[in-house]
Design brief:
With about 260 residues, this protein is α/β, with parallel strands linked by helices. It has helices at about 5, 30-45, 70-75, 80-95, 115-120, 145-150, 155-165, 170-175, 190-200, 205-220, 225-240, 240-250, and strands at about 5-10, 15-20, 50-55, 60-65, 100-105, 110, 125, 130-135, 170, 180-185.
């Protein structure tokens, strides 16, 4: 399959949907799939028509993680294996660093690096039939890279339970531990996802970019440094035209007219 076939793209009303489109391979993150996803994310960075990104998947499996058949072919070639994991890490960081909010639409199973992909997104909405796991321990390959995103989204004891047992958890359990934001009936999954995306798409893209970057950066800082950093971020944000327009619109009781700057 070509990169365009592996990851389909559709944009409407400022919302771009990227769909993992290899259901016959359980949407596994092979090297070719990872490269295709990386290319798609790169094109969206400066795309003026994209205000919010929805990450979806075709078929009954959202993403089964790495392609184990591909990994088996790489036995004995550590350079190739390291390239694969480095590429996966690059994609996860691209999701986090993309200056547009990313919402995972999860209608099926998300395991290992697939669960990592969900955890890397800014928001996640799941169907009540969705399930999640980091089952690497069951095959002797601990989910060490998925652990990075997982442990930054859920409490460490919940993360360790998933990592150590490798057991599948329900969508409701994923919501309870903070892996996903909302769980809904599969029949209304799209309504929930695109309503949420539409609300976010109505905000200033400049403000969203500032806020997303600041959110992830302050998490890595100590308390005092985080406040110093975010105080400067707010000061700089206040100098932007959209912030001044938004404040004036609120005080004047009117709808703001964003310039995205």
């Amino acid at each position: 399959m070509t990169a365009e076939e592996m990851i389909t793209v559709a944009t409407e009303n400022g919302i771009t949907t990227l769909t993992l489109n290899q259901p016959e391979n359980r949407n596994s993150l092979s090297m070719s799939m990872l490269r295709a996803l990386s290319e798609r994310l790169e094109t969206l960075e400066d795309d003026p028509d994209t205000r919010v990104v929805v990450l979806a998947a075709s078929g009954r499996v959202f993403c089964a993680g790495h392609d184990l058949k591909e990994i088996r072919e790489q036995f004995g070639d550590q350079d190739q294996q390291k390239d694969l994991f480095d590429q996966c890490s690059k994609v996860m960081q691209q999701v986090v660093n993309l200056p547009k909010p990313v919402i995972a639409r999860v209608a099926g199973v998300a395991t290992a690096a697939g669960c990592q992909l969900v955890a890397s997104c800014d928001l996640a909405v799941a169907a009540d039939t969705a399930r999640f796991a980091t089952p690497g321990v069951n095959i002797g390959l601990f989910c060490s890279t998925p652990m990075v995103a997982l442990s930054r989204n859920v409490h460490r004891k919940h993360a360790m339970e998933m990592l150590l047992t490798g057991e599948m958890i329900s969508a409701l359990r994923a919501e309870q531990i903070g892996l996903v934001n909302k769980v809904v009936d599969e029949q209304v999954l799209d309504d929930m996802v695109y309503n949420m995306a539409g609300v976010i798409a109505g905000k200033s893209t400049h403000t969203l970019k500032i806020g997303k970057e600041a959110f992830y950066r302050q998490l890595e800082l100590g308390l005092a440094d985080a406040y110093d950093y975010t105080s400067q971020v707010m000061t700089d944000n206040l100098a932007a035209g959209d912030a001044q327009e938004g404040i004036c619109a609120f005080l004047d009781k009117r709808t703001p007219e964003w310039k995205d700057s």
